[in-house]
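tokens incoming
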């Protein structure tokens, strides 16, 4: 990795080792929650932290670990956050930092989290949400949908596209277009708005193709 200029060498080594651990833990995931998602969230969080402040190391650790006990991916460890807890133990995090990181993870979920109550949690939540937007967000939405046998769209999505029909395109309205308004940091919001504009552009093209308006 070698590019976290503000971190000691031993902290970089921990981050690199955790990435390898997450790669093993998520090797069977094709729903958009593989280690590359964790890595991108970590890089998004690093970018936001540079502008907004906060404890960089704990932000990066929480970013890497944020989905290892996700309800959808690992329902059995979801309540106790066993995977994250075990990794924090493995790398000798003290009790305070362990609880701090677990609280961040607990508070960032879109659907069942409590409100993030620290700058670090707000940054990790924004970083995760950014990965649901833009070009990568579109790719993840379709990957998730294919993985869960969700259709790309149905005819109802075309009549005003208000969402709610359990298709990939409907998910744009049900969740993705709401995210920029829910961002908690100024820098996160700016990037989210840019990525949302790109999804809107994509959707315009998508709709014009299936309505044959470009003939
Ligand atoms: P995250 O890890 O970003 O918190 P989620 O676990 O909520 O995301 O979902 C993973 C990815 O799959 C996201 O990019 C999200 O937009 C997409 N996704 C989640 N639920 C649905 C759904 N019902 N239909 C289509 N895409 C979905
Ligand atoms: Ni995530």
């Amino acid at each position: 990795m070698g590019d976290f200029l503000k971190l000691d060498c031993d902290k970089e080594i921990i981050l690199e080792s955790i990435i390898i651990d997450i790669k093993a833990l998520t090797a069977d995931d094709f729903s958009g929650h593989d280690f590359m998602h964790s890595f991108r969230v970590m890089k998004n969080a690093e970018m936001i932290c540079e502008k907004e402040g906060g404890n960089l190391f704990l932000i990066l650790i929480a970013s890497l670990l944020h989905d290892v006990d996700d309800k959808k991916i690992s329902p059995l460890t979801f309540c106790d956050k066993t995977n994250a807890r075990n990794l924090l133990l493995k790398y000798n995090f003290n009790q305070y930092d362990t609880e701090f990181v677990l609280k961040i993870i607990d508070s960032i979920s879109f659907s069942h989290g409590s409100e993030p109550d620290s700058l670090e949690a707000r940054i990790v939540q924004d970083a995760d949400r950014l990965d649901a937007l833009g070009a990568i967000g579109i790719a993840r939405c379709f990957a998730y949908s294919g993985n869960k046998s969700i259709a790309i769209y149905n005819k109802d999505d075309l009549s005003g596209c208000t969402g709610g029909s359990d298709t990939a395109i409907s998910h744009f309205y049900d969740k993705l277009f709401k995210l920029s308004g829910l961002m908690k940091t100024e820098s996160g919001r700016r990037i989210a708005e840019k990525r949302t504009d790109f999804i809107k552009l994509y959707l315009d093209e998508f709709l014009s193709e299936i309505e044959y308006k470009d003939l």
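note: The chain has a mean pLDDT of 90.
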